[in-house]
Write a structure and sequence with these properties.
By secondary structure, the chain is mainly alpha-helical. It is built from eight helices and two strands. The chain is globular, with a radius of gyration of 18 Å.
């Protein structure tokens, strides 16, 4: 599976931690077809969500022309089909994490997300400068909040899994979790 987070997603989540670019939230409604790209345990992932994500990425990277997009795909080792599959896989993984968190009673509160957003916002002198920074990354504050939420959820889910076992993860534990999630993805058709 292609790691879309590494390939497509660098945006600053907090001043002290890693940067991840995320691209959801400000897409064009042109070219949307409707339909379902994938279904995860009864939850649909809309084809338009996948298309919008890719369109937003292209726009934020300045590769809106077909030749520029083809060059970017080639240099990154993607085809149109593989980039679509990578984005779908990312959304499938996010949905599986949300479902696992709900099952485990793990949640990220709005207050926790607010704290991260406010921490980042404090790096800018004005609201206009903050909005400009978001806009230049192809984001809205709402989409930025969504991009802050997912890594926080992942972190809490991992912590809950480790707490459940009340041990540090050894190779066998890590392997069992990898196998568990891999089998959840096997056989899924978009």
């Amino acid at each position: 599976m292609i790691n879309v987070k590494e390939k497509l997603a660098p945006i600053c989540i907090t001043a002290a931690t890693a940067c991840v670019i995320a691209l959801a939230g400000c897409g064009s409604s042109d070219g949307l077809t409707g339909g379902v790209a994938a279904t995860v345990n009864g939850t649909d992932i809309a084809e338009d969500k996948v298309t919008t994500y890719i369109e937003d990425f292209r726009s934020s990277q300045g590769v809106t022309g077909e030749e520029d997009w083809a060059n970017w795909l080639n240099s990154a080792g993607y085809t149109p089909e593989s980039i679509r599959e990578a984005v779908i896989d990312m959304f499938v993984t996010q949905e599986l994490e949300k479902q696992a968190a709900a099952e485990a009673g793990v949640e990220v509160t709005d207050e926790e997300v607010d704290a991260v957003v406010e921490s980042m916002r404090s790096n800018y002198d004005t609201d206009e400068a903050w909005e400009e920074a978001l806009s230049s990354a192809g984001l809205t504050e709402e989409s930025y909040r969504e991009n802050v939420y997912q890594p926080m959820l992942e972190e809490k889910l991992i912590a809950a899994a480790l707490d459940e076992n009340d041990t540090k993860a050894d190779d066998e534990t890590v392997l069992s979790y990898v196998q568990m999630y891999a089998s959840a993805l096997d056989g899924m058709k978009r």
